[in-house]
Backbone:
């Protein structure tokens, strides 16, 4: 099946700093989503982005499908950004997602 | 409803006990998914429904796991004769499956199962 690798595995930031999270995948995809899992376990959909660039406030994402990677940018980080960020991809036709292992982000005040 | 609703939120089961986990997807969502998330790992796919049809159950780890969605809305994941390795968070998700935003998947808060 398709492989998803995320980097870095862990990241510690000072509040206000910027960061870039990376997701590499091993095959072409129909669907790519970024999620934030908060400390209570809730997975929140950030972006549906199989290709191109999207922005939502302090967050933006870019997927270069031909090179099989996606980037999530967090600017001016806040303590509420802490949690685990997952990249998930789908290429089966059923929208069943394969998740990476995630990047654990801690933003300190 | 406004979001995907799961119950119970927390369940402690004795080894060998049967459990049933319920998922109420977003109203009108055609697709429904169950995922299993072990501590420190990403969610792993279990099974997928399109309306009442179970189109993919390749992720179910054993024949002790069974899922149904008889009327194409609420779904139940049943685990028979629970084992300690079944301890995990069970996540339900749904998607509209139609239109430009149709593939965006929305997750519930999960059912945290601990088998003792």
Residues:
């Amino acid at each position: 099946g398709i492989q998803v690798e995320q980097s870095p595995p862990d990241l510690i930031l000072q509040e206000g700093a910027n960061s870039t999270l990376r997701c590499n995948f091993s095959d072409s995809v129909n669907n790519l989503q970024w999620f934030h899992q908060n400390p209570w376990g809730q997975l929140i959909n950030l972006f549906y982005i199989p290709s191109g660039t999207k922005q939502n406030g302090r967050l933006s994402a870019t997927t270069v499908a031909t090179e099989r990677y996606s980037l999530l940018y967090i600017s001016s980080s806040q303590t509420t950004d802490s949690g685990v960020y997952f990249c998930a991809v789908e290429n089966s036709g059923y929208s069943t997602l394969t998740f990476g292992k995630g990047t654990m982000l801690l933003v300190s005040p | 409803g406004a979001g995907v609703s799961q119950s119970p939120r927390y369940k402690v089961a004795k080894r060998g006990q049967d459990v049933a986990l319920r998922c109420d997807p977003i109203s009108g969502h055609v697709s429904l998914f169950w995922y299993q998330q072990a501590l420190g790992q990403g969610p792993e796919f279990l099974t997928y429904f399109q309306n009442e049809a179970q189109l993919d159950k390749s992720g179910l780890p054993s024949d002790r796991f069974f899922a149904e969605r008889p009327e194409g809305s609420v779904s139940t994941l049943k685990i028979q004769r629970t084992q300690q390795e079944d301890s995990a968070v069970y996540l339900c998700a749904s998607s509209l499956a139609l239109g430009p935003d149709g593939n965006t998947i929305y997750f519930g808060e999960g059912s945290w199962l601990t088998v003792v």
The radius of gyration of chain A is 13 Å. Chain A has a mean pLDDT of 93.
